[in-house]
Specification:
The chain is built from 14 helices and 31 strands. With 573 residues, it is α/β, with parallel strands linked by helices.
Length: 573
């Protein structure tokens, strides 16, 4: 410390010294304060930063894994304003280089820029061109995987190959499935089978050949004659011949069986009557058809009843309740027609007029009947007919199910005269008029159809004078003939009873009749779409032959409708 003068008076020099000391001390203090302040702020900042990090760590620790994942996804969704378009116009398409498909230009994320989509594959048998899937074609313009108009060519991976198994064959050719090539075949419309006893008859052969020439000129059909040898005379072997032709020729639609000694499938028997079946011959499919046919035939629950039941009821199985599967629909790919003359005749002698003997009808009579019927089939093939149909029915049968509805539906095509329970006078008067078709329906036997109560019947002998080319008889056993060998499970020779012939044999007696259709053309156990007359009438009205109107169609109870006469018959209006 500097001592001042005790005089109380500061000299200038002393004052200066004091001020200088004060200034130095203040500066030191100021510098110390500032240094402390700076250091204190750094400490405070570090403390706050550490405190915030502790808070964040605590917050992070409290978040779930799902929360963290969502935050990461949000970061990824943040728009990137710095992107470039991969393509120039939305909707523009281009083909993919490595895959047969295309990509489409568009914005498929959130960056507001255009990019290419994932590849859309082109369908089978197409190729991508200019961003579009184009159907590939073979050299003739046929699309891949399709048949060419030049059968049997098929477009396979750009190559035209033969594949008749898929593309079929041209007319008059058939497919050889082993090579997939088409081979030329004979066009054949009808087969005529001649039974062993008539096969060597020169007159019958000449009559058939002349008939074939007329048919060729009229409708252009090709026809082949097959003579049945004794060894071939088995209905299964005959069916195999039919099937072989059906599978190897073009256009086969009919078979005509000539001769009552042809081994024929049995349709039904009992009560002294029997009827043939055309199902095994008319259907195709090889042995499978026979398995079904034999299953029905041999089963008491099937197509026919056991012999003892037939003997006790004397009725056709289809009349039992419930109905049996004899009347199931059958597709008749081939129309079967029969020409079976009566083979035998019953001789009734007094005094009791019981059957004394059965004699065989002379061969010359039977063979001449066959010659005459082919002569008849040759004539009047261009004759014009009135569109008139008469239909007499027993009311008890006509009113079953939808039978009457079906009968009346014929009026859609023709002028129909329909009468239930006609009187005897009406029946006899009808024989004096002309019809394109005459129908008698009711209860029946091979010789009569009961068209009303009290014995009102239409007899087979009436056909001798009836002026119509087409007769239809509907009723029990109307399609067959009498027999002595009831329930022997096979077809027997036809014969006349009580000097009365059966309906089918009348094709040989009438000068007008070309076709006799007998059996169950209107049976009421179905909804009507498979009924015989309904199925054929519309085609007949357009001029088609009867065989063409039948072939390939499904008929209810196909085996119960038997056709006698000319398969080539057709109407002219």
């Amino acid at each position: 410390m500097i001592k001042l003068s005790n005089k109380g008076i500061f000299t200038p020099f002393s004052i200066l010294i004091i001020l200088l000391a004060v200034a130095i001390t203040g500066g030191v203090l100021l510098l110390s304060y500032q240094s402390w302040q700076i250091e204190n702020k750094e400490i405070e900042k570090e403390f706050v930063q550490n405190d915030n990090e502790d808070d964040k760590s605590t917050e992070t620790d409290s978040k779930t894994e799902e929360d963290l994942q969502q935050e990461e996804e949000k970061k990824g969704e943040e728009p990137n304003n710095f992107c470039q378009n991969e393509c120039s116009q939305s909707g523009f398409k281009k083909c993919s280089g490595d895959i047969n498909g295309y990509q489409t230009c568009g914005d498929y994320d959130i960056d507001n820029c255009l990019e290419w989509s994932l590849v859309t594959n082109c369908p089978l048998n197409t190729i991508c061109q200019n961003g579009m899937c184009i159907q590939q074609k073979c050299t003739d313009g046929t699309f891949y995987g399709q048949c060419s108009i030049d059968k049997p060519k098929y477009c396979e991976n750009g190559n035209l190959v033969n594949k008749c198994s898929i593309c079929n064959c041209p007319l008059n050719y058939i497919c050889d499935k082993s090579s997939n090539l088409c081979r030329n075949v004979e066009k054949l419309d009808m087969l005529i089978f001649v039974s062993p006893q008539y096969a060597g008859d020169s007159q019958i052969k000449q009559a058939i050949n002349e008939y074939i020439e007329v048919v060729k000129e009229d409708i252009g059909w090709n026809v082949k004659i097959i003579n049945i040898t004794p060894d071939l005379n088995d209905f299964r072997k005959i069916d195999k011949v039919i099937e072989n032709h059906y599978n190897s020729v073009s256009g086969l639609k009919a078979a005509l069986m000539v001769g009552e000694d042809i081994d024929t499938p049995l349709g039904s028997e009992g009560g002294g009557h029997e009827a043939p079946s055309i199902v095994p011959w008319g259907t195709t499919g090889g042995e499978i058809s026979y398995e079904e046919y034999n299953r029905r035939f041999s089963s008491c629950q099937g197509d026919f009843l056991c012999p003892e039941i037939l003997d006790s009821y004397h009725i056709r199985p289809s009349y039992l309740n419930p109905p049996i599967d004899y009347l199931l629909p059958s597709r008749l790919n081939i129309a079967i027609f029969l020409l079976y003359p009566s083979h035998e005749r019953e001789i009734w002698l007094p005094p009791d007029y019981t059957v004394q003997k059965v004699e065989e009808i002379d061969y010359q009579i039977r063979s001449q009947q066959i010659v005459n019927v082919f002569e008849k089939f040759k004539k009047d093939r261009q004759e014009e007919y009135l569109k008139n149909i008469l239909s007499f029915w027993h009311a008890e049968i006509a009113e079953v199910g939808i039978q009457e509805e079906l009968i009346k539906s014929m009026a859609d095509y023709v002028n129909l005269y329909y009468k239930k329970n006609p009187s005897e006078e009406e029946i006899m008067a009808s024989l004096e008029k002309e019809y394109m078709m005459y129908i008698a329906g009711g209860h029946g036997t091979p010789m009569i159809v009961s068209v009303g109560p009290g014995g009102k019947t239409f007899e087979a002998d009436y056909l001798d004078s009836l002026n119509t080319p087409f007769f239809v008889g509907s009723g029990c056993y109307v399609g067959g003939w009498p027999t002595f060998d009831s329930n022997n499970r096979k077809i027997d020779f036809s014969h006349d009873r009580y000097d009365t012939t059966w309906f089918g044999s009348k094709i040989f007696n009438s000068s007008y009749l070309k076709v006799i259709a007998v059996g169950f053309p209107f049976d009421p156990a179905s909804d009507g779409k498979y009924y015989f007359i309904k199925n054929i009438l519309q085609d007949l009205m357009t001029g088609k032959t009867l065989a063409e109107s039948i072939a390939g169609k499904i008929f209810w109870g196909g085996g119960s409708m038997i056709l006698y006469g000319d398969p080539t018959f057709h109407f002219n209006f």
